[in-house]
TrEMBL record:
Protein source organism: Acinetobacter celticus
Descriptive protein name: Oxidoreductase
Keywords, alphabetical: Flavoprotein, FMN, NADP, Oxidoreductase
Names of required cofactors: FMN
InterPro entries xrefs: Aldolase_TIM, OxRdtase_FMN_N, YqjM-like
Domain of life: Bacteria
GO molecular function (one): NADP binding
Every NADH:flavin oxidoreductase/NADH oxidase N-terminal domain range: 4-343
Length: 369
């Protein structure tokens, strides 16, 4: 029996299988951070995929928290209402739970769309703005330096994460993921490479993780009791030759988040420093998930070039993780869970309109919702 197609609990939320569509920015919102038709078709595609859960793209809690001017936002009620209307449509297609990742890009904000150049847009640019961070250190040397956040800025940020979390619940999302990875704002506070503060949010490990814990707690206080909130981390900065964020740091943070009530840890890596030395190969981040899994009692999601069904199954069989995050592979193959079920001899639940496409000789592959 395949572990990949067994149910799993994230707090009170049960998934029908252990395949999680990880958040992927689409850079397709309007300049007010609002949905476009692209999101409608993309979310519908996710809903029909057969995955156990989809977490939609990094969604900013402040206008200046967007990676680009074309990112989604949830900093106002109009955005929340539009998300709610789209969720009603998408959930009519499938019972798959849908979560949202709440985020702030910090010093990595104010960029162009990737296919238009990706570089940072200066505050003087019509589609750019002044970025913020833990300290006034830019990501790229040529970037406009971010403003170091004041304590008042930090308190406003915490309040905005909480307000966006409440909007996410009101919109009908089933889960929230807090984005503390990939060199974005919370990660910028966590790593000594980007945080040179001397106040209660800098210096020691406890001080550097303080903001992430305070944001998590504020979000938890803003949503109904038991509503599931998970956290995505970069397990390492891939900068072993200097003092940086590393696996031991991630283990310490994961334990603290578990104590606060996080329902899972989603383990990625990198994104904090331009000189990172990644060792990229199939499943290259799985050992980080395994290291964290050994120290916590909540589910751990592994992600990162997991592209084959047997590869995903092996990660679960060898207890390296509890669930599998897939991203780019499901853009390439939107029915990846169907094909994984066929390869592993399992059944996947699909919409009845598609039952007729069941391949000859695989009579048990599909089951209608």
């Amino acid at each position: 029996m395949s572990l990949l197609f067994q149910p799993i609990q994230f707090g009170q939320l049960q998934l029908s299988n252990k395949i999680v569509i990880a958040p992927m920015c689409q850079y397709s919102a309007n300049e007010q951070g609002e949905l476009s038709y692209w999101h409608e078709q993309q979310w519908a595609n996710y809903a029909l995929s057969g995955a156990g859960l989809c977490i939609i793209e990094a969604t900013a809690v402040q206008p200046e928290g967007r990676i680009s001017y074309a990112d989604l936002g949830l900093w106002n009620d109009l955005q929340g209402a539009q998300l709610k209307a789209l969720l009603v449509k998408v959930k009519s297609l499938s019972p798959m739970p849908i979560g949202i990742q709440l985020a702030h890009a910090g010093r990595k904000a104010s960029t162009d769309k990737p296919w238009d150049g990706r570089g940072q847009l200066a505050p003087s640019h019509a589609q750019g703005w002044q970025t913020i961070s833990a300290s006034n250190l830019p990501f790229y040397p040529q970037d406009h330096a971010p403003h170091a956040m004041t304590v008042a800025d930090i308190q406003q940020l915490i309040a905005d994460f909480a307000a966006s979390a409440k909007r996410a619940v009101d919109a009908g999302f089933d889960l929230i993921e807090l984005h503390a990875a990939h060199g974005y704002l919370l990660h910028q506070f966590m790593s000594p490479l980007s945080n040179q503060r001397t106040d209660e949010y800098g210096g020691s490990f406890a001080n550097r993780i303080r903001l992430t814990l305070e944001v998590f707690q504020a979000m938890k206080n803003a949503v109904p009791e038991g509503f599931p909130i998970g956290v995505r981390l970069s397990a390492t900065d891939w900068m072993d030759d200097v003092a940086s964020w590393d696996v031991e740091s991630s283990i310490g943070l994961s334990k603290a988040l578990e104590q606060l009530g996080a329902v899972y840890i989603h383990v990625s890596s990198g994104g904090l420093h331009v000189e990172q030395k990644l060792d990229i190969h199939a499943g290259f981040q799985v050992p980080f998930a395994e290291a964290i899994k050994k120290t916590v009692n909540i589910p751990v999601i592994a992600v990162g070039l997991i592209t084959e069904a047997m590869q995903a199954e092996g990660i679960l069989q060898y207890e390296q993780a509890d669930a599998i995050g897939i991203a780019r592979v499901i853009l390439y193959d939107p029915r990846w869970p169907w094909h994984a079920a066929a390869e592993l001899g399992e059944t996947v639940r699909i919409t009845p309109q598609y039952l007729r496409c069941q391949p000859h000789g695989l009579s048990g592959l599909f089951q209608a919702f």
